[in-house]
Amino acid sequence: MTKEEYIRTQLESHYEYLTSLGYRVVGVFLQGSQNYNLDIYEKDYMSDIDTKCIVLPTLRDLIEGNKMTSTKYDFEGGQIDVKDIRMTMEMWKKQNQSYLEILYTDYKIINPRYESYMNDILYMRDDIVKLNPPQLARCINGMSEEKVVALENVSPATKEKIEKYQYDPKQLASIIRLTHLIENLFERGKSFKKAIWYEDKLRDYMIDIKKGSVNLIEARRLANIYNSKTNMIKEQVVKRLGKDNFNNDIYATLKKKVYSLVKFGIIYSVVNNIDS
């Protein structure tokens, strides 16, 4: 089985699992290292298959004013992050990098019923990532700060790595990756798709970091250097563009497309007598 076939099989499993739970799935999108060309499939290191799943509300949800779906499921060595399309839109509005990347992933399964509506949203992805540049810079910096805190923090997910390396190499790799991202976007003017992608020697370096090639002292030093650089670029962006530089026109277009998808989903369920 090729890497592509393996990823596709996992995405199909995520899709089928959520459908079996009664979710109205719009699409399942791969999140994480595969989107950066930083995934590893070796005996001692296997990259997770993590996905974000966009779902629609039911008619009952809307009538009763139910809280929008936002939950996570652990699934076969990975995690599924499930969000109502309306909440996903808010994540895009907040310029959350992990939600922006799913707009660009090559690995996704979209429900054919909603494909034309979802494609309308995907077509405006370059606009969505420019919705609020200062907010995007702040979000990248905030995520980097979180990774610094998590570098040596012991949790069930990191216990084994910290016992082996005294820190979590995955957190260090993320800190460095976020610096590269903010540099690529705001200093080098790269598109988001190119800004997240690694190849050649830089990819080799990042893979070594993920595998724990540096000791704890060096890990702390690198985390501080890269996080400081990320913070500095964020401050420069905010100084140049203002605290917020929100594009109301882009958001209005996005909201119209999202609400059209929700409306279609509700009409379809009513016409086809699907339990809401």
Concise structural overview:
The protein has helices at residues 3-20, 59-64, 85-93, 97-100, 115-122, 125-128, 133-150, 159-165, 169-186, 192-195, 200-210, 216-241, 248-271, and strands spanning 24-31, 41-42, 45-46, 50-56, 70-75, 78-84, 108-110. The chain is built from 13 helices and seven strands.
Key words describing this protein structure:
5-stranded mixed sheet; two-stranded antiparallel ribbon; 13 helices; 7 strands; globular
Q: What is the 3D shape?
A: globular
In angstroms, what separates the terminal alpha carbons?
39 Å
Can you count the beta strands?
7
Taken as a percent bin, the fraction of beta residues is: 5-15%
Overall pLDDT metric: 95
Low-confidence stretches: none
Share of residues in helices: 55-70%
Class from helix and strand fractions = alpha+beta
Largest sheet: 5 strands, mixed
Q: What is the H/E order?
A: HEEEEHEEHHEHHHHHHHHH
Helical region count?
13
Strand order of the largest sheet: 5-6-4-1-7
| Rg computed from alpha carbons, rounded to a whole number of angstroms | 20 Å
